[in-house]
Please model this.
Amino acid sequence: MNKVNLNDPSIMNSKEAADMWGIDDSYIRKRIYDFPEGSVRKLGRDWVVTETGMRKVFGNPQKQIGGNNMQLKVLVMDRLPDEEYVKVEQLAKNKSDFYKYDGNSIIIFDVDNYDKVEEYFKVQFDNKTISIYDFLDHFDAGQYLYLHGLQIGIKQCIELVKQNLDEYIDRIWKAESLDDEISNIIKEQMFKVYTNYVAKSFEVINNGNFEWN
Model:
């Protein structure tokens, strides 16, 4: 079963979506049956929609989603059928301003260029793309690092990247290797966690808030 991250800003209720697209939420309810399968669902009294569904029905939003300068999507080419994979791989090698190909079966692009990228590759991306937010979870293999008795988990570092994703979007977009750049960013969080731990330890010592064993 695929995990759904409810913290992903590309999942929203109809009122939030209406605000992003500058429309009345009643318009969304009236066009529920125009949404692609899997992009809308009723929970209690509220409708929950995805960014992909909203773009298909209402076009591009008037406001940025999630607060980032760029909203990156990731096309994992391994999810494509073999015939589509070969076609996309050949086209992806051409340089472009509206998508990046890292040569490792990964294509990233800004959601504002979603339709343009789909048209260029002649492939329907429904259920084949994920947000950069969710893509970060691919780096979580459950590893831990032990430093002087302190255990730092990679999951903890990934969560820090997610919390500060705005800071790293530009680096990720410009990176020659998506995997390498994200791995480096995650490692940087480990350093932050450790230095924060050391700083707090000094604070406790300086304040005398400890007991000798």
